[in-house]
């Protein structure tokens, strides 16, 4: 079993570490790094893993997973890059940053894989997209899949699609939570107690998601089955169309994709 280090174990890094442990990865094969000592202590106590400094993690691990914010990746790589021994696989979780950015900071020949996952990894329902960067072989991709497959679904995509993936599935959970918030407010407007509205919407979201996945039907067909002629649903759909909700989603995801591009441009 390889040793995996998570550099910058914040929100997503912790999601990954906890998922690897649930999947049976041995705690002594996991390392984490953290900037704040209290955070390091918290992770060590919660998961029984070693939390070490960046240099130790770099030397001891086979897979170096970069989970710092894109804005912090340059500083981390400037520290590690020149000293990185050969034979390490670098897996980036950073939104927007192309693998070429890593290649510029790392010794020639270092394999880099770019990954975009999402927080439902916490319940083993992540959507993870994996792209080969420079020097990444089939074996490196297979190893990356081995890390992420227990956390949900994985697909391979060309790196050119990763900013779009980030906008769709990386940020996607936030859009669904936003929708749940908005629909719960609508329930309040209609006079339901908040908790009742919340429970109705959460179960409706779960049921709809399971139907989408398990029926294999097109969403239009599933929506049509709910939308009775001269019934209630079509009145709501008309309002959603009148308020440009579909157009809002197109614009929102384009804005998220553009932000990923900006992060890359700012990283230099
Ligand atoms: N939160 C999410 O849903 C997703 C996040 N991502 C990506 O994952 C990365 C992390 O995001 P979050 O976990 O949300 O951010 P976060 O801010 O919670 O975690 C980043 C952690 O890195 C630490 N850090 C920064 N520089 C460091 C250094 N030099 N050495 C050690 N630790 C250092 C920070 O103290 C922080 O705890 C980002 O690049 C983001 O684009 C990707 C997909 C989804
Ligand atoms: O908001 C962000 O930048 C990160 C990347 C995808 C989800 N969260």
Automatic annotation (TrEMBL):
What region holds the Pyrroline-5-carboxylate reductase catalytic N-terminal domain? 3-96
**The protein's annotated pathway:** Amino-acid biosynthesis; L-proline biosynthesis; L-proline from L-glutamate 5-semialdehyde: step 1/1
Q: What is its EC number?
A: 1.5.1.2
Q: Which domain of life is it from?
A: Bacteria
Taking every annotated instance into account, which residue ranges of this chain make up the domain Pyrroline-5-carboxylate reductase dimerisation?
A: 159-263
Q: Which Pfam families match?
A: F420_oxidored (PF03807), P5CR_dimer (PF14748)
Q: Which UniProt keywords apply?
A: Amino-acid biosynthesis, Cytoplasm, NADP, Oxidoreductase, Proline biosynthesis
Main subcellular location of this protein, as a coarse class:
cytoplasm
Coiled-coil spans are: none
* Reactions catalysed, as given in the entry: L-proline + NADP(+) = (S)-1-pyrroline-5-carboxylate + NADPH + 2 H(+); L-proline + NAD(+) = (S)-1-pyrroline-5-carboxylate + NADH + 2 H(+)
**Molecular functions per Gene Ontology:** pyrroline-5-carboxylate reductase activity
> What EC class does the entry list?
oxidoreductase
As for what it does, the entry says:
Catalyzes the reduction of 1-pyrroline-5-carboxylate (PCA) to L-proline.
Descriptive protein name: Pyrroline-5-carboxylate reductase
């Amino acid at each position: 079993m390889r040793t995996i280090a998570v550099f910058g174990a914040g929100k997503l890094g912790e999601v990954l570490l906890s998922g690897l442990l649930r999947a049976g990865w041995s705690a002594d094969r996991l390392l984490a790094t953290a900037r704040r000592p209290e955070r390091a202590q918290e992770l060590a106590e919660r998961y029984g893993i070693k939390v070490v400094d960046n240099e130790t993690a770099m030397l001891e691990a086979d897979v170096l997973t970069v989970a710092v914010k894109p804005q912090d990746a340059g500083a981390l790589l400037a520290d590690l890059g020149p000293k990185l021994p050969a034979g390490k696989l670098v897996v980036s979780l950073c939104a927007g940053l192309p693998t070429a950015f890593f290649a510029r900071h790392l010794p020639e020949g270092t394999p880099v894989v770019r990954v975009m996952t999402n927080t439902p990894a916490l319940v083993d329902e992540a959507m993870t997209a994996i792209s080969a960067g420079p020097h990444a072989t089939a074996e490196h991709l297979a190893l990356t899949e081995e890390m992420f497959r227990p956390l949900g679904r994985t697909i391979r995509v060309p790196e050119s699609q990763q900013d779009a993936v980030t906008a769709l599935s990386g940020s996607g959970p936030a859009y669904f939570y936003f929708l749940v918030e908005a629909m719960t407010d609508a329930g309040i407007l209609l006079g339901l107690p908040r908790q009742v509205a919340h429970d109705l919407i959460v179960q409706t979201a779960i049921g709809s998601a399971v139907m989408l996945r398990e029926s294999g039907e097109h969403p239009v067909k599933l929506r049509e089955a709910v939308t009775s002629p001269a019934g209630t649903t079509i009145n709501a759909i008309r309002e959603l169309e009148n308020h440009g909700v579909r157009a809002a989603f197109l614009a929102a995801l384009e804005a998220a994709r553009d932000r990923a591009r900006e992060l890359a441009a700012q990283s230099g």
